[in-house]
Amino acid sequence: MKKDPNLPAPEPEETFETGLERLSQLVTSLESQELSLDEAIKAFEDGVVLSQKLSEKLNVAEARLEILTKGADGLPKSKPFSLEDNSSSAETPREDDLF
Q1: Cβ atoms 93, 79 nearer than 8 A
Q2: Exposed/middle/buried for 50, CB within 10 Å: 0-12, 13-18, 19+?
Q3: What's residue 87's pLDDT?
Q4: Which residues contact 47 (CB under 8 A, 6 or more apart)?
Q5: What is the dihedral of CA 81, 82, 86, 92, to 10 degrees?
Q6: Average pLDDT over the chain, rounded to whole?
Q7: At CA 83, angle to CA 81 and CA 86, rounded to 5?
C-alpha cells in the first residue's frame, strides 16, 4: 500500500522524560494563571492525555522489569520499593534475592 503524500508523517514517539518535562511545563502554565480560559482548558486536556500516556509507559516498564526479575520457578520475585532499600546503609541484596 502506498503512503498518501498529502498526509502528515507520523510524529516520532515522545520519550518518557520528554513527556514528563512537557507535563511539568503545562502544570507551570496552568499555575501561572496567565492563560485565558480557553487556553487553560486546552492545557488541562493536553495534560490529562499526556498523563495517561506517561502512566501507560510506566505500566509497560513495570511489566518489563517483572519479566526480567522472574525467579527460577518462572514467577516474578518482587517486593515493594522503598527509599530505605537504596540508602547507603542498606544491606546489599543477595544474588538469590535478585532473581
Answers
A1: no
A2: middle
A3: 47
A4: 23, 26, 27, 30
A5: -70
A6: 77
A7: 90
Q: Scan for cell 498529502, then name that residue.
A: 6
Range of the domain at 32: 16-98
pLDDT tens per residue across span 12-46: 778 999 999 999 999 999 999 999 999 999 999 99
pTM of the model: 0.59
3-state secondary structure of 34: coil
Is residue 70 within 8 Å of 77, Cβ to Cβ? yes
Higher pLDDT, 73 or 77: 73
The CA distance from 37 to 33, in Å, is: 9
Q: Provide the domain count of the chain.
A: 1
Q: Residue 92: inside a domain, yes or no?
A: yes
